[in-house]
């Protein structure tokens, strides 16, 4: 097979060309807009296609704004919401996946189908469902009122936004978690038990370390879209006090006249996630090295 | 393995986690079910129940899902976009998967990198980048359907590649080699041996792409051009916080029904194919195919 | 095509030359205008009205109307679907609507081709100069719009567009405060500090302001006693931004344009908004809730203005677009349209007395009607010089970024 690279290159070509033109080039276009100039009348971005002429003055303003200026709140909030939502998702998702992989027994298929269902229910439908429940006249709000909790859930509440993110993305966490846990060699855990470990110790010393790379991968899988999310926030809050980075990108590109700033924030988000990703790649590689040693 | 399974079953009866899983199932599904129920509300409200009616589905002469032009238009746009994307991306993804799996040498890294990158890029980044590209660089591509199609193909291409490559790995090269030994050309081996065996992954891709695109919000929204390219998710998004009637719930319900129909058809097709071709797994393997769990 | 070429020309100028060159080139293209800014925007003000430059001819007289589809661009819920249905039937055509929720963003999208409508509803003087500079509009041929004579007399020759070459007024409204009379005492709004409710922590979570940089920043300025809604004074603009941030900390307001659904639904007690929204709100009241719960404080010194129809240069159905303007400028059609939209049509024939006698205006909302006196006393709001606009937007971003 190795001797006919031309055929396989031919096979790879259309898809690769497509991704070059519509995935790689667009990133370059973002940079050209981000480091381009601004039309003085419309404040629209005028891209500079030649990197030698790039102008970094606006990018300095935006990046310093993210670190200690007006956009600082947005940056910090995005990180806090995503981290909290991730932790919560793991707290809920891990037991579910664990049960499914380990204890579901004969009903496994039924549980699997029930767990997969929300994965196939449209994200916006699930948000719509909660908007209806959380609105002041909604069932959930009325129920909480009976319990004596009077809280305006849809009024710029960070709790609602974080829980909304959890609700929205948790199906995407549970499935890969389940796949990881199911592939684990459970005999090792049984062995640990046989050697005198109690179930908590076996879980902490064997199950968790063994499933670590899978946990990590699953976490990254939901952290990435969460970091760029704007619609959950828009639907559940729509208040400046819960704005995330994605909202600012959407605002600058779609609801404002400053696409250059939008492009700069897209770059900022990509760089941030790239750092995150490389950290992830390094740790999985390290893990692989440790286990092969 | 059987030993492990029996031990798991022994524990199943006592596990307190069973409450956790049921709590999760209720939490994840009941709100949606309530939203579906409210599409049959007799009143204008999406939150206060005023009796059962089909008003927002059929009978209201202006505002029901059946009679509202703009909602029907959104449904039509959604279907056209997802079917068109499906048709473009599947062949593109299959060839890319075969190529990426077998290409060697210098080009390989570029191909692998480019194929993997969209999987770990947030949608908003892809959407924003394409918006900038179509409005400033490839200005011949008008925003609206064409841009949405190109965008969705770009974003879903990698998942098709993942699904097909998983199948390629499990098939291995022995079948093709056997065909070659029997005198088939490389092309014939590919066309008559490998491609038919790829069928489950093709079917899984079709289902996955259809469901992703019909549910897609971010890319479709960034690349839309007003009402002519408004899809169902866009319509839901723009009306949820407004004074929309339960017809909106009906619209969302219809979207869910459509995805589930695609899922059921796909699962049915996959498990039938497996049965007919003597492959094991049945429904569970089919589920694994469409959820990309084994990737 | 012309539009693209001109944009291209200007960009060329911008990237190679400088602002003033760009301006003079535009002035040269656009014909004589006394009050273009250094950046080449032709901005009319009540003190210095403007005749806008015309670069193409209007459509010829007596053309047959097109068949097929008319595409309009409009704010959400800003025309009555029933009225449009009548128009569709009468002319045997189909009308499709795209929605915008921010004027400046919509103009950007008209420039980059996201929106390609024939007819635009609801743009105002704050955006007109940019629409003209971007060469998006075509001049109107009023022989297709005999109902133009129904338009409020003072708006037939408006300062922003002398001779109404490009625009026909649609609705009139003023900026003020919508509130729930069942949760708010009318006397909370005294002339001096009516806006203070938005800074009063006891209303936290129950307030909203317009998602419109120009309107909401101007509100903060009015509260501080500065009444120039087009100010270029950086200190005043900065102060307004700081005040809005203080408001955000005090009451955490919603920032959107949904007062017309949120107030009747009971989700908000008070909302800075356009007067017309309260009439739109009437039909969003839940069953069994009295319309008298809706109230509006019309500040004595505020922006009262109108928006308008305009037709794009690239319109595929320009004759139909003229016909629809004419259709909605008919008194009966405008009244039918109003039953859904709520806003007051900018027609001489639809007087405040007529509206009150129609019985559709609850007692509590009589104060939300735009009277000729209010129109005369109005503060105006026009397109800002781009450099000044940038100052406003920076403050707005600081506010909305939380």
Largest sheet of chain C: 10 strands, mixed
What would you call the shape of chain C? globular
Order of SSEs of chain B = HHHHHHHHHHHHHH
CATH superfamily of the largest domain in chain B: MetI-like
- Helix fraction of chain B, binned, reads over 70%
Enumerate the spans of chain C where pLDDT stays under 50 for 5 or more consecutive residues.
1-34
Query: Architecture of the largest domain in chain B, according to CATH?
Result: Orthogonal Bundle
Provide a short characterization of the protein structure:
The complex is a heterotrimer of chains A (about 290), B (about 300) and C (about 400). Chain A has about 290 residues and is mainly α.
List the helices and strands and how they pair.
The complex is a heterotrimer of chains A (293), B (295) and C (402).
Chain A: H1 5-34, E1 37-38, E2 45-46, H2 57-68, H3 72-102, H4 108-116, H5 123-134, H6 139-146, H7 158-183, H8 186-194, H9 199-227, H10 231-236, H11 245-254, H12 259-292
Antiparallel strand pairs in A: 1-2
Chain B: H1 2-12, H2 17-38, H3 55-59, H4 69-102, H5 106-116, H6 123-136, H7 145-171, H8 174-181, H9 186-197, H10 199-215, H11 218-222, H12 232-240, H13 247-276, H14 282-291
Chain C: H1 2-16, H2 19-30, E1 68-74, H3 81-91, E2 93-99, H4 103-112, E3 119-124, H5 125-133, E4 168-180, E5 207-210, H6 213-223, H7 234-251, E6 254-256, H8 259-265, E7 270-274, H9 276-281, E8 294-297, E9 304-311, H10 318-328, H11 331-341, E10 344-345, H12 352-357, H13 372-376, H14 386-400
Parallel strand pairs in C: 1-2, 1-3, 5-6, 5-7
Antiparallel strand pairs in C: 3-9, 4-7, 4-8, 4-9, 4-10
Helix pairs in contact in C: 6-7, 7-14
Describe this structure in words.
The complex is a heterotrimer of chains A (293), B (295) and C (402). In chain A, strand 1 (37-38) and strand 2 (45-46) form a beta hairpin. Chain A has helices at 5-34, 57-68, 72-102, 108-116, 123-134, 139-146, 158-183, 186-194, 199-227, 231-236, 245-254, 259-292; strands at residues 37-38, 45-46. Chain A is mainly alpha-helical. With 295 residues, chain B is an all-alpha fold. Chain B has 2 domains: 18-57, no CATH class; 68-291, Orthogonal Bundle (MetI-like fold). Chain B has 14 helices and no strands. The longest helix of chain B has 34 residues, at 69-102. Chain C is an alpha/beta fold and 402 residues long. Chain C has 3 domains: 1-30; 68-172 and 304-374, D-Maltodextrin-Binding Protein, domain 2; 174-303 and 380-400, Periplasmic binding protein-like II (D-Maltodextrin-Binding Protein, domain 2), CATH 3.40.190.10. Chain C contains 14 helices and 10 strands. In chain C, strands 1, 2, 3, 4, 5, 6, 7, 8, 9 and 10 form a 10-stranded mixed β-sheet that branches. Chain C starts with a helix and ends with a helix. Chains in contact: A-B, A-C, B-C. At the A-B interface, helix 1, helix 3, helix 4, helix 5 and helix 7 of A face helix 1, helix 2, helix 4, helix 5 and helix 6 of B.
């Amino acid at each position: 097979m190795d001797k006919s690279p031309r055929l396989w290159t031919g096979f790879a070509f259309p898809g690769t060309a497509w991704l070059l033109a519509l995935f790689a080039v667009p990133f370059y276009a973002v940079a050209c807009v981000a480091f381009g100039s601004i039309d003085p009348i419309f404040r629209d971005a005028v891209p500079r296609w030649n990197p030698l002429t790039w102008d970094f003055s606006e990018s300095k303003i935006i990046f310093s704004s993210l670190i200690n200026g007006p956009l600082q709140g947005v940056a910090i909030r995005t990180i806090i919401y995503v981290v909290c939502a991730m932790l919560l998702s793991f707290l809920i998702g891990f037991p579910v996946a664990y049960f499914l992989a380990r204890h579901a027994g004969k009903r496994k298929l039924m549980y699997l189908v029930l767990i997969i269902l929300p994965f196939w229910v449209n994200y916006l439908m699930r948000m719509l469902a909660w908007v209806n429940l959380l609105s002041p006249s909604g069932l959930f709000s009325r129920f909480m009122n009976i319990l004596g909790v009077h809280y305006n859930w849809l009024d710029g509440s960070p709790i609602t936004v974080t829980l909304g993110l959890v609700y929205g993305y948790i199906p995407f966490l549970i499935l890969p978690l389940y796949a990881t846990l199911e592939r684990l060699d459970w005999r090792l855990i049984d062995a640990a038990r046989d050697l005198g470990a109690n179930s908590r110790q076996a879980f902490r010393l064997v199950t968790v370390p063994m499933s670590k790379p899978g946990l990590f991968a699953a976490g990254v899988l939901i952290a990435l879209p969460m970091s760029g999310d704007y619609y959950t926030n828009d639907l559940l809050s729509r208040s400046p006090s819960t704005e995330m980075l994605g909202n600012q990108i959407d605002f600058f590109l779609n609801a404002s006249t400053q696409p250059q700033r939008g492009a700069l924030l897209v770059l900022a988000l990509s760089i941030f996630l790239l750092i995150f990703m490389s950290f992830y790649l390094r740790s999985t590689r390290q893990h692989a090295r440790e286990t092969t040693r | 393995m059987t030993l492990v399974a029996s031990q798991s079953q022994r524990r199943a009866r006592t596990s307190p986690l069973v409450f956790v899983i049921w709590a999760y199932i209720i939490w994840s599904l009941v709100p949606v079910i309530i939203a579906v129920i409210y599409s049959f509300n007799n009143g204008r409200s999406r939150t206060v129940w005023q009796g059962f009616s089909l008003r927002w589905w059929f009978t209201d002469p202006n505002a029901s899902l059946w009679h509202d032009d703009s909602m029907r238009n959104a449904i039509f746009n959604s279907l056209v976009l997802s079917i068109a994307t499906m048709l473009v991306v599947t062949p593109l993804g299959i060839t890319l998967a075969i190529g990426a799996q077998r290409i060697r040498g210098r080009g390989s890294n570029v191909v692998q990198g480019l194929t993997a990158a969209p999987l770990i890029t947030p949608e908003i980044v892809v959407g924003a980048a394409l918006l900038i590209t179509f409005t400033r660089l490839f200005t011949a591509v008008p925003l609206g359907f064409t841009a949405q199609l190109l965008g969705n193909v770009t974003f879903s291409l990698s998942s098709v590649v993942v699904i097909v490559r998983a199948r390629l790995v499990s098939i291995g090269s022995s079948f093709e080699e056997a065909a070659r030994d029997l005198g088939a050309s490389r092309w014939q081996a590919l066309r008559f041996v490998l491609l038919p065996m790829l069928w489950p992954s093709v079917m899984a891709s079709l289902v996955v792409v259809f469901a992703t695109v019909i549910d897609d919000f971010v890319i479709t929204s960034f690349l839309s051009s007003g009402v002519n390219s408004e899809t169902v998710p866009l319509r839901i998004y723009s009306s949820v916080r407004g004074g929309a009637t339960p017809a909106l719930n009906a619209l969302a319900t219809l979207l869910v029904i459509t995805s589930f129909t695609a899922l059921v058809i796909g699962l049915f097709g996959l498990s039938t194919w497996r049965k007919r071709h003597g492959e094991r797994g049945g429904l569970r393997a089919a589920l694994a195919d469409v959820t990309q769990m084994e990737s | 095509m012309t539009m693209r070429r001109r944009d291209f020309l200007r960009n060329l100028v911008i990237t190679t030359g400088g602002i003033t060159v760009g301006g003079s080139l535009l002035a040269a293209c656009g014909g004589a205008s006394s009050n273009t800014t250094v950046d080449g925007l032709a901005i009319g003000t009540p003190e210095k009205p403007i005749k806008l430059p015309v670069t193409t001819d209007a459509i010829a007289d007596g053309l047959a109307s097109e068949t097929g589809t008319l595409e309009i661009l409009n704010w959400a819920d800003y025309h009555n679907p029933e009225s449009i249905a009548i128009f569709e039937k009468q002319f045997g055509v189909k009308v499709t609507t795209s929605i915008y929720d921010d004027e400046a963003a919509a103009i950007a999208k008209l420039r980059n081709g996201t929106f390609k409508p024939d007819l635009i509803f609801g743009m105002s003087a704050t955006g007109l100069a940019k629409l003209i500079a971007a060469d998006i509009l075509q001049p109107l041929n009023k022989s297709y719009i005999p109902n133009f004579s129904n338009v409020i007399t003072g708006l037939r020759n408006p300062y922003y567009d002398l001779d109404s070459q490009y625009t026909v007024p649609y609705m009139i409204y003023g900026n003020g405060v919508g509130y729930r009379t069942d949760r708010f005492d009318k006397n909370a709004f005294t002339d001096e500090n009516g806006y203070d409710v938005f800074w009063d922590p006891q209303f936290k979570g129950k307030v909203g302001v317009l998602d419109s940089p120009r309107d909401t920043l101007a509100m903060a300025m009015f509260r501080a006693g500065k009444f120039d809604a087009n100010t270029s004074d950086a200190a005043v603009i900065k102060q307004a931004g700081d005040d809005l941030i203080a408001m955000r900390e005090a009451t955490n307001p919603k920032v959107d344009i949904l007062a017309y659904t949120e107030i009747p639904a009971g989700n908000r007690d008070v909302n800075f908004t356009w007067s017309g929204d309260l009439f739109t709100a009437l039909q969003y009241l839940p069953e069994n809730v009295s319309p008298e719960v809706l109230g509006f404080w019309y500040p004595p010194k505020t922006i009262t203005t109108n928006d308008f129809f305009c037709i794009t240069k690239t319109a595929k159905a320009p004759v139909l677009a003229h016909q629809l303007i004419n259709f909605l400028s008919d008194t009966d059609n405008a009244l039918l349209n109003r039953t859904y939209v709520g806003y007051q049509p900018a027609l001489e024939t639809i007087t405040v007395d007529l509206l009150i006698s129609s019985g559709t205006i609850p007692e509590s909302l009589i104060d939300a009607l735009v009277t000729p006196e209010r129109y005369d006393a109005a503060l105006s709001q026009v397109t800002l010089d781009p450099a000044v606009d940038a100052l406003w937007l920076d403050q707005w971003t600081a506010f909305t970024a939380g």
